[in-house]
Amino acid sequence: MSSTGWKNIPHKHKSRVPGDEDYSPMSRIYFIAWKDPKSALLLQTKYDVDTLEKEGIISVNLAKPMNADHIVNAPIIDPFQ
């Protein structure tokens, strides 16, 4: 699958779903904050997040509820399969 991300730069990415060899329902949750909230826009891919973080436009921090690292079990289900 390919898509267009930040600044309309095309890139390839793969969504992992149950049945894929490298699928895992485990995820980490991150907080993203815009340095200038007025410039906030929809981020569609990890590439968008990584690029804007490197450019200093956003900050990305691991969500730590109650000061502990949490991993979320959140399986992705494709209702159209």
Task: Give a brief rundown of this model.
By secondary structure, the protein is of the alpha+beta class.
Give the spatial strand order of the biggest sheet. Answer: 1-2
The main β sheet shows up as: 2 strands, antiparallel
% residues in beta strands: 25-35%
Q: Span from first to last CA?
A: 16 Å
Integer tally of domains: 1
Task: Give the low-confidence spans.
Answer: none
Number of strands: 6
Structural class: alpha+beta
Describe this structure in words.
There is one protein chain. The protein has 81 residues and is an alpha+beta fold. The protein has one domain (2-73). 11% of the residues lie in helices and 27% in strands. The protein contains one helix and six strands; from the N terminus they run ββββαββ. The chain has a two-stranded antiparallel ribbon. A hairpin with a 5-residue loop joins strand 1 (2-4) and strand 2.
Secondary structure topology:
Layout: E1 2-4, E2 10-12, E3 26-28, E4 30-34, H1 46-54, E5 58-62, E6 71-73
Antiparallel strand pairs: 1-2, 3-6, 4-5
Key words describing this protein structure:
27% strand, 1 helix, 11% helix, single chain, two-stranded antiparallel sheet, 6 strands, alpha+beta, 81 residues, extended
